[in-house]
Structures are given as structure tokens and as C-alpha cells.
Design brief:
It is built from 5 helices and 4 strands. It has 123 residues and is an alpha/beta fold.
Length: 123
Amino acid sequence: MITLNEYDKDNMTSSLVEEHVIRILIAESDPDLVVLYAEFLSRCHVNVTIVVASNECLSALKSNNFDVIILDEHLSGNILTKDLANEILRVKPYQRIALTTTNPSYRTSTGTDFVGLIRKIFC
């Protein structure tokens, strides 16, 4: 959970941001969350690319380099999020991925499907 009131969004730059522009790809189909991510991260001087469908995510990944990909579990498009994450790691094995969901953990039926993927990302 992010509580935006706890952050001084105007003073969140760091020497890392000044030396290297952080590039984040956000794959999210919920328009409210897209606005939240874009507003928050742009104030942190982060270069944000937003896609709303899984096939757009793959296209953006193949034509750009990103420091992190924020990948929503319920992304629209013709590729399931689990399969998309596996394809991302096949194309770029060291890509950092943050998997997100807005569902409570007890309602996330695919949560166990991501355990193997999480091991692949972090181990």
C-alpha cells in the first residue's frame, strides 16, 4: 500500500536520478492506477512509459531498455500476465519485474501460479 501523503514528492530526487535517468515501464490497464503511477513517478523525475495491454508491453520492451517493469496481474491483452513475465525473462533474463495486483490476497486465484515465476526472478 502506498500512502502518498507520507512522501514529499517535490524533494524525492537522489544522486542516482541525477546520474542516470531511471526508466520504468508500467503495464497497467486500470486508468486510475495509471494516473497514480504517472503522477507519482514523474514527480520523482523518473522516465515512465505506460502500456495498457500485454502485447504493447512486449513491443515496448523489445524496442527500449527499462530499469524496472511494473506488471499488473490483470493486464488486458491476449497474453496472460504469467506468460508475459516468462517471455520478458526469456528476452531479457536480468530484467527486474514488479508484479502487482489490486485484489486482496485471499481473492487472488493465480497467486500460487506466480510462486515459480518469483523464484525465477529472484533466485
